[in-house]
Amino acid sequence: MITAIVFVHVDNDRIPEVAEQIAAIDGVSEVYSVTGRIDLIAMVRVPTFDDVAPVVADSLAKVPGVRQTETHLAFRAFSQHDLDATFAIGIGG
């Protein structure tokens, strides 16, 4: 599974509606409204690297009100949730 973290700059008066439209895109698992220089963070989870572009470039970036996107691909997860899941299935000891 490929995870992409997409920073989304949005027209200020359209943040809630843009967030809802992005959340409805297949491959987008979560959308967060955040503080700071960006407006939204979208988590994209797709089976292969080749599936990222259709979600981000062909769909998410074309939502009316989206001004700019910046995509980061995750290499490895280190969250406690992921570690707990690994040990729960008997891997690692």
CATH class label: Alpha Beta
Tally of individual helices: 3
- Main sheet makeup: 4 strands, antiparallel
Q: Whole-Å distance between the termini?
A: 24 Å
Report the mean per-residue pLDDT as an integer.
Answer: 90
CATH architecture: 2-Layer Sandwich
Account of the 3D structure:
Helices cover 25% and strands 32% of the residues. The chain is an alpha+beta fold and 93 residues long. The protein has a four-stranded antiparallel β-sheet with strand order 2-3-1-4. It is globular and about 40 Å long. The model has no long low-confidence stretch (mean pLDDT 90).
Topology:
Layout (H helix, E strand, L loop, with lengths): L1 E9 L4 H9 L4 E6 L6 E7 L5 H5 L9 E8 L6 H9 L5
Antiparallel strand pairs: 1-3, 1-4, 2-3
Features:
3 helices, single chain, 25% helix, 4 strands, 93 residues, four-stranded antiparallel sheet, Alpha-Beta Plaits, alpha+beta
Brief description of this entry?
This protein has three helices and four strands, in the order E-H-E-E-H-E-H.
